[in-house]
Amino acid sequence: MKILLIYPSRLSNLEQPMKYRLGFLPPLGLAILTALTPKHHQVKVLNDIVENVDFDSDVDLVGLTAMTTQISRAYQIADEFRRRGKKVVLGGIHPTFFPEEALQHADSVIIGEAEGLWEQLLIDVENHCLKDRYQHKEFCSLDNLPTPDWSNQDLTIYPRMLGAKLPMMPVFTTRGCPYGCKFCAVTKVYGKSYRVRPIADVVREIEATNIREIFFVDDNIACVPEHSKELFRALSGKNISWMSQISTTVLKNPELIDLAADCGCFYLFIGMESLNKDSLKGAKKSFNNVDKYEELIARMHKAGIVPYLSFIFGFDEDLDEQFDLTVEFIRRNKVGYATFWLLTPLPGTDLYWEFLKDGRIVDHNWSHYDANQIVFNSRIEKSELERRYWKGYNKLFSWRSIVANMGNVVKNSRRPFNEFLRSLFYMVYIHIKVSNNDHPFSGGIFRRS
Ligand code: SF4
Question: What is the C-alpha to C-alpha distance for residues 301 and 308, in angstroms, rounded to an integer?
């Protein structure tokens, strides 16, 4: 069969796909699906954020993976292909939570993790007995997974460091999270247990693909300290640079920060979420200890890792001056990078069901669920909250601020020259995006339509 796998963009307010000149990160899920596909099939992978979809292409099966913010574009693509008689399969986070809705646009839906299901689905398509849904009874094992296959993706559409053969590539080492923050879908998708990939498999993947810059896309790479230590030791000496996401709880085992830095970690995203203890409590994230935030930042600076802080605004408990307090905190602690989000009741989260039950959800357009727009009845009125959000974000990445931000990044990095070049690119990029009220992490790099 000829199989086309698509990573959809998102729709603008004019219902047009938002297109960019460069992508952010190659879609790992589609490289995993490619690796799971038996070799007698032909696979092509396309990133709709940058590349154009040819609806008249000669394909037998189209697969799309989508988060909520991408789902309207995924449905648009699916409908076009189905109009031309092609079979369409939908997977990813949104179809996992709303399979009935997805089935209005697809012949079949994969619910949850695709490993073990995709292979069976392909057999069923060949035997003309495709089922409308495929779902595991339990979370799958991470042992013996194939190495993601990137051979069918155009990797030239992603930025890369000067002289690098490959862009930064995504790799995962764990799935799941033991916590249950109200706004987060991770535990609903991947479970409350923390499943780890065999470290030898991770190392083999890095060596086989010759990746030098890695984004470990784990939601918390240091959840089980003993495992993380083992992983970091195994990565040592591999001549890689990497970034990942980590919880504030890492401060209970601060030696992990040094070990991470020693094996090439240069950025760590930290979900601080709020400086307001009541907001954290309301979000079931009280394990974030606000009183320890400054110590954590200092510890990372000392180790030579650049902290990339993440904050959410729009909690009922937030103070009116929450944005100003946060910007002041970031500046006072000489943090170079931070990202802001507006609270969003993402489908599948406890927050979604709570707001739905309470009748607080006022916007059901999935394209608006990008965490930059208020889609629920918020304590501070939507337009005022969004105005303060962009004002705070712009303040953080004004031309004057980014000079100071770059200084902080370079000063706190183990590889100052590399970080100078990287931060020069990203700070300008973030400035342009934020001043256009476009989130730095949404879509791709440099909008073209
Ligand atoms: S926000 Fe982070 S810590 Fe909380 S449930 Fe999600 S992944 Fe886990």
Answer: 11
**Residue 180 CA: which ligand 1 atom is closest?**
5
- Contact between 175 and 195 (Cβ < 8 Å): yes
Instruction: Give the ligand 1 atom nearest the CA of 184.
Output: 6
User: Could you tell me if 408 and 309 are in contact, meaning their C-beta atoms sit under 8 angstroms apart?
Assistant: no
pLDDT of residue 402: 95
Element (DSSP H or E) covering residue 299: helix 293-303
Side-chain half-sphere exposure of 286, counting CA atoms within 13 A: 4
At residue 94, φ and ψ (nearest 5 deg) are: -65, -50
Q: Quote the CA–CA distance of 20 and 24 in Å, as a whole number.
A: 10
Residue 193 CA, ligand 1 centroid: distance in Å: 12
Render pLDDT for 266-282 as a digit per residue (tens, 0 to 9).
999 999 999 999 999 99
pLDDT in tens, 96-122: 999 999 999 999 999 999 999 999 999
Q: Give the Å distances, CA to CA, from 48 to 18, 102, 210, 293.
A: 9, 19, 26, 38
Judged against a pLDDT cut of 90, whether residue 210 lies above it is answered with no
Find the domain containing 130 and state its range: 2-135
Per DSSP, 141 falls in state P
Q: In the prediction, which pLDDT does 449 show?
A: 84
| 417 and 290, same domain (yes or no) | yes
The answer to whether residues 414 and 304 belong to one domain is yes
CB neighbourhood size of 438 (10 A): 16
CA of 268 to the centre of ligand 1 (A): 15
Measured between alpha carbons, how far is 176 from 54 in angstroms, rounded to an integer? 36
pLDDT, mean over the chain: 96
3-state secondary structure at position 35: helix
Nearest to 102 by CA among 113, 88, 115, 87: 88
Asked if residue 267 belongs to a domain, the reply is yes
Residue from 182, 219, 315 whose mutation best tests the ligand 1 pocket (most atoms within 8 A of CB): 219
Q: Which ranges of 84-117 does DSSP label H, i.e. alpha helix?
A: 93-97, 99-103
Torsion angles phi and psi, residue 337, rounded to 5:
-120, 135
Q: Quote the distance between the C-alpha of residue 91 and its chain's center.
A: 16
In a domain, 149, yes or no: no
Distance CA 415, CA 32 (A): 32
Domain containing residue 308: CATH number: 3.80.30.20
Do residues 191 and 305 share a domain?
yes
The answer to whether residues 238 and 210 touch, using CB atoms and an 8 Å cutoff, is no
Question: Residue 449's CB: how many other CB atoms inside 10 A?
Answer: 8
